[in-house]
Amino acid sequence: MNTLYDIAIIGAGPGGTTTASYLARAGVRVLLVDKAKFPRDKTCGDALSPNALKVLGDLGLLGAVKDFGFRLNGVRLVAPDGNEMVASIPQKAGLVDYLYIAPRYRLDNLLLQHAIDSGAEFKPGFKVSDIQVERDKVAIVGKNRKVTSSFTARMGVIATGANISLLKK
Q1: Is residue 165 over pLDDT 90?
Q2: Can you tell me the mean pLDDT for 66-73?
Q3: Structural domain of residue 86, as residue ranges?
Q4: Cβ neighbours of 148 (radius 10 Å)
Q5: Do 40 and 105 touch, CB atoms closer than 8 A?
Q6: Residue 35 and residue 33: Cα distance in Å, rounded?
Q7: Domain ends where: 66, 87, 102?
Q8: Based on the domain organization, do 96 and 113 belong to the same domain?
Q9: Are strands 4-10 and 84-88 parallel, antiparallel or unpaired?
Q10: How far apart are CA 48 and CA 46, in angstroms?
């Protein structure tokens, strides 16, 4: 029997895993798939904005990020001719006035484990090849190694970051 999930999330980066955590904590039956196997590294600038830090705090993960990341209070740019520009992080209501630099390898794994611990089901190494939308459900079709399979959910989220190929389907 094929399980019907409430929501299927394609992409286990920060957007997908954070969405999965919030929904799973609310009792939603969540399937999270990603073409990569974890742990994995990802090319990224690694900076976490004050808004991102607030979300991590809401999830109870800010302390862990502070353990492996480092705080950045602003930036200083120096041109080859010696001219400098210094910029601080602006203070906004309810947010901190600094960034954190956290390696994606560590951050993604922390967020993924939190999503799983919150109740999301994770399928690593699942490369989605098609999305079939019907009136009351969505099926995601793909391969894990050479085996083609599909999963069905009431709704779907495409959280693949810069990879927008699935949005064109």
Answers
A1: no
A2: 94
A3: 47-102
A4: 11
A5: yes
A6: 7
A7: 102
A8: no
A9: unpaired
A10: 7
